[in-house]
Fold this sequence. Notes:
3-stranded antiparallel sheet
Amino acid sequence: MSDDDQRRRIASEEFNGPSLISIRKKIMQAPPQQTTAAEKVHRYPCQACGANLVFEPKDGCLTCPYCGYKELIPTSAEQVEERSFEQYLRPRADQLQVLAQDALEVQCTSCGAIVTFVPPEVARECDFCGAKIVAQPKSADPTVAPEGVLPFRITHPQATQAVRGWLSSRWFAPDALKRFASPEAIDGIYLPYWTYDAHTTSYYVGQRGEYYYETENYIERDAQGNSVQRTRQVRKTSWHSASGTVSRWFDDLVIPATRSLPPNRLYALEPWDLVELKAYEPAYLSGYKAQRYQLELGEGFEQAKV
């Protein structure tokens, strides 16, 4: 298998389901554009009252949670590009960026997940294992920044209602679980993904077997004890040498870059609507959190081969 044409970018998508009752999730991850961090990060103060604007999935705008002021997210002239696998396998310092201006990150001491957020967002509990966050947040480290993002479509009230509906159908759910139905317990968080493209060429040499049938005579006794000759079809195999070449193009193999959730749960959410992929803008992170990728680019490629 050749990996000369390997490329990868990041996608994001939201989901809301009973298996992730305390969170609304999204997916993102990809190599950055060749721009400086200063060109990629912004602050979004409300022009009416000065509060921080947050991304609102209902209309795709930045919205003030206090006075209701709305602002369109700037349309990026950049496109979601596919990057060279080799160039980002060991990224240089100039290929790394922070996700947003003044971004903080904190690591859960229980499960090891690293979550990035922008104040006034806070991290009180781990969004994955529920453990209390005891570590102090620090300035987010540069990372291979997302190339693209699939914005949230489910609003916070819709997510809250969905969780309450699911809990009401669980008669024997423990009382402690009901706290997840409160609006304060539901957060939106982006999950990291890699996507890979590949043109593969495989060569094979071996033996190929083809079935054929021969008529065979045999003797058996009938009900009266007499010997009777009968015939039957016997399957046999004819073997001969075989060789050849197989070429195939793989487009957008999506590999989760998180170890915090069971893979079968993540794969059950596919396919992701990559047609709706947007060029990454920090505005989509406003009011939400993002998990730092746990699976490196090379590790994800090994999974893509399987």
